[in-house]
Write a structure and sequence with these properties.
Layout: E1 6-9, H1 15-24, E2 26-29, H2 36-43, E3 47-52, H3 60-65, E4 71-74, H4 84-90, E5 93-95, H5 102-117, H6 120-128, E6 148-151, H7 155-166, E7 171-174, E8 185-186, H8 190-195, E9 199-202, H9 216-222, E10 227-230, H10 239-247, E11 253-256, E12 275-277, H11 286-304
Parallel strand pairs: 1-2, 1-3, 3-4, 4-5, 6-7, 6-9, 7-8, 9-10, 10-11, 11-12
Helix pairs in contact: 1-11, 5-7
């Protein structure tokens, strides 16, 4: 039976997922152990699966420490916190949760654009603080019709493009491969994409190639009237350069759901009016959390039943 299979959950991520795992497997909560060595002594040989997420996965050291590990099922689309090379080497399967969170993340990308350009957070504070009685809020910037550049035209990037089209925005993109069937304008470099965009949206996976893909040159190409939206991963953007560009007025604004050192956010951003800061909530709806959790569990059940994985990465 599956009840004897040890499943190591790396950190608290969803109480629904925790309960579903506990019903089916021998669930071991990594965060309950102060000493990793004590944990390993007790559980090293009973763990067949690891469940990670966008912030905590499985590095080479952990993988080497667990001789019976067969599968890592990630409660996320991004798998940059898993050592995929080590998994391939040891024949360990890896799954993630694509598709089910696409719509939510794309919704948040559009929300960030509107919130930034129309200064909705400030408007809300303006009303609550009683300032409206003394005069109207300042004029803001229109979204409809602005050119939107999307960095990474995968599932999420494409869903953002569709939404931007509904706002009559010309859409262009940069990605590893040209996608002619989608009919958007392709730019061969990120700098050219930024030069030709009012709004640059980061929506690519995090890899060695895409780390700091939004650097000073890209920010300068976007310019003092351009804005940056990041719903990908924090390390896509050189955060110190972003702080510099915003404080020096070389970039018009930024709306961010992700950061390099989550949950730490550069405090220089807190005083700026032209930024919107979210605590990595792109996929954070009840509906999507549960769909992601169901997919994590279904992948584990399929693996241990000898069936095909639903969403294999490795």
């Amino acid at each position: 039976s599956m009840e004897s299979i040890g499943v190591l959950m790396m950190c608290p991520m969803s109480s629904y997922l925790e309960n579903e795992l506990q019903k089916r497997f021998n669930l071991i909560r990594f965060w309950n152990f102060q000493e990793k060595s004590v944990f390993l002594e007790t559980h090293r040989n009973s763990i067949g699966a690891v469940v990670g997420n966008a912030s905590t996965g499985a590095d080479a050291e952990l993988i080497n420490d667990l001789p019976k590990l067969e599968i890592i099922s990630s409660f996320s689309v991004g798998i940059d916190k898993i050592d995929l090379g080590k998994c391939k080497e040891k024949g360990i399967r890896v799954t993630n949760t694509p598709d089910v969170l696409t719509e939510d993340v794309a919704d948040v990308a559009i929300s960030l654009i509107l919130t930034l350009l129309r200064r909705l957070c400030e408007c809300d504070r303006y009303v609550r603080s009683g300032k409206w009685k003394y005069g109207d809020f300042q004029l803001t910037t229109k979204f409809s019709g602005k050119s939107v550049g999307i960095l990474g035209l995968g599932r999420i990037g494409t869903a953002i493009a569709k939404r931007a089209e509904a706002f009559s925005c010309p859409v262009s993109y940069y990605s590893r491969r040209v996608k002619p069937d989608l009919g958007y304008k392709y730019y061969p470099t990120v700098v050219e994409l930024a030069q030709n965009s009012d709004i640059l949206v980061v929506a690519c996976p995090l890899t060695d190639e895409t780390r700091h893909i939004v650097n000073r040159n890209v920010m300068d190409a976007l310019g003092a009237k351009g804005v940056l939206i990041n719903i990908g991963r924090g390390p896509h953007v050189d955060e110190q350069e972003l702080v510099n560009a915003l404080t020096e007025g070389r970039l018009g604004g930024a709306a961010l759901d992700v950061f390099e050192q989550e949950p730490h956010v550069p405090e220089e951003l807190f005083g700026l009016q032209n930024v919107v800061l979210l605590p990595h909530v792109g996929s954070g709806t009840v509906e999507t959390e549960n769909a992601m959790a169901d997919l994590v569990v279904a992948n584990l059940e399929a693996h241990f039943a000898g069936e095909s994985l639903l969403t294999p990465v490795v």
